[in-house]
């Protein structure tokens, strides 16, 4: 998550900040003509602010944690003037910060007066769930030491009281009591993911086992059970990208069945990835040297997956081709 450090010598917090007009910028870069958006992420400790910040960052929002309110306008101004301009900011604010008073009206009014589309996201959960989460994390509540009896329950109660006004004014309140991380991800994606590509990006990567299995592979298929074209003199100097090698590999007994099985397993897995909100998948296809069999099957898999009814982005890469 992006962190922002304040510099009191650079900005006078008492001076008003001139916010850029919506659609303004430096005339170059992406996002020209689109309004500036700010989402203030707040809520109860343990309710999922950190998860929300990571999701918003994945959705293309610039995330700043506990930025002093006096510097928020300056951050937006600098972001809009950047090349390319930054037009989507997610500001995480909570009671841990000495700058957070529990009243966001001044911040939101300033931003909206400058033409910035400003929304407040409030995350909450039931007391018993918050207590359980703090127990799992073995952390103290930020207001626990300030409560009369120093208990976790008292700290949660104090925080609810301090944030009551913020919750009332929030544009979106999400109760994470019964939500999994993936369910929260989907809710946030629905609320703040407009314009973000949701297609799954699938990389089919051929490789040679003698050079090691790719460390970032989500699935690995082993083609070494097929006859090796290396031992066919007229095929040895060719690669799996050549039609003569592809025809040879796919004509071997079991090759077509294995290819269809790989396709079926990939389809099952990508369906699950979409439901879990994942956006990237790497399928590694290996043979001994990464020149013939794995390359030919990777090319064939790429063609099959390219015919999918989904809008997945499929690319085929050959890690070890030419390495011999």
Assign a percent range to the helix content. Answer: 25-40%
Overall mean pLDDT: 83
What's the gyration radius in Å?
A: 26 Å
Q: Helix/strand/pairing class, anyone?
A: alpha/beta
Number of helices: 9
**Would you list the SSEs in sequence order as H and E?**
EHEHEHEHHEHEEHHEHE
The spatial strand order of the largest sheet comes to: 2-3-1-4-5
Principal-axis shape equals elongated
- Strand portion, in percent? 15-25%
Number of E-state strands: 9
Low-pLDDT residue intervals, each spanning 5 or more residues: 1-18, 22-31
What's the N-to-C terminus distance? 41 Å
Largest sheet descriptor? 5 strands, parallel
Summarize the structure.
The chain is an alpha/beta fold.
Overview of this structure, please?
With 324 residues, the protein is of the alpha/beta class. It has nine helices and nine strands. It has helices spanning 49-58, 69-81, 105-113, 127-137, 152-169, 181-192, 243-250, 255-275, 293-306, and strands at residues 37-43, 62-65, 88-92, 117-124, 172-175, 201-208, 219-222, 280-287, 313-318. The strands form two sheets. A five-stranded parallel β-sheet has the order 2-3-1-4-5, sandwiched between helices. The protein has a four-stranded parallel β-sheet with strand order 7-8-6-9, covered by helices on one side. Helix 1 crosses helix 6. The radius of gyration is 26 Å and the shape is elongated. The two termini are 41 Å apart.
